[in-house]
Amino acid sequence: MKHIDQKNDEILQILMGEGRISNAELAEQVGMSPSTCLRRVQELERSGIIKGYRAVVDRELQGVGFAAYIAVGLSEHSKAAQKAFERSISRSPEVRECHNITGAVEYLLRVEVPDITAYKHFHTNVLGNLPHVTAITSYIVMASPKDERA
């Protein structure tokens, strides 16, 4: 599937907001028959445009009430240094997102932990001990008035 037409875009917008909507309800909202709607959703899934479905979890109720974005700079700008960093970060359950970015630093992480004490432990004992990490700048999340991550 190369082209996303208006109906497929409508389907995607609804599914991004409510992934558990029934096919009948989805079809009604986009103004098509249930069988046509189901075929379109299945094609979006087959083509990889829809990668999966997730539950949106209230992390605070789960005991994870502290979030921070961390800009990380590496001392070495080689592919090997980046791969080593990415392997280490992939093993850290505190890291919910890791993005390789352009600019003054190489990575932007989203870290979620129970509290500031847990964050200090991650910052000092995990991130601070990784080879090639030379810069760590933390941005503490105070509130998230808009958050569309699933």
Please tell me about this protein's structure:
- Strand 2 and strand 3 form a beta hairpin.
- Helix 2 packs across helix 3 (34-46).
- The longest helix is centred in the first third of the chain and has 13 residues, at 34-46.
- This protein folds into two domains: 6-46, Arc Repressor Mutant, subunit A; 66-140, Lrp/AsnC effector binding domain/regulation of amino acid metabolism (RAM) domain (Alpha-Beta Plaits), CATH 3.30.70.920.
- It has a four-stranded antiparallel beta sheet.
- The protein has 150 residues and is α+β, with helices and mostly antiparallel strands.
- The chain has five helices and four strands; from the N terminus they run αααβαββαβ.
Q: How is the secondary structure organized here?
A:
Blueprint lengths: L5 H12 L5 H8 L3 H13 L19 E9 L4 H12 L4 E6 L6 E7 L2 H11 L6 E8 L10
Antiparallel strand pairs: 1-3, 1-4, 2-3
- The oligomeric status of these chains comes to single chain
What is the CATH class designation of the largest domain? Alpha Beta
CATH architecture of the largest domain: 2-Layer Sandwich
* Helix run count: 5
Q: Which outline best applies?
A: elongated
- Radius of gyration of CA atoms, rounded to a whole number: 20 Å
Specify the helix fraction band.
25-40%
| Beta-strand content bin | 15-25%
* Alpha carbon gap, first and last residue: 24 Å
CATH H-level superfamily title of the largest domain: Lrp/AsnC effector binding domain/regulation of amino acid metabolism (RAM) domain
Poorly predicted regions are: none
CATH level-3 fold name of the largest domain? Alpha-Beta Plaits
Q: What's the main sheet like? A: 4 strands, antiparallel
The average pLDDT score comes to 94
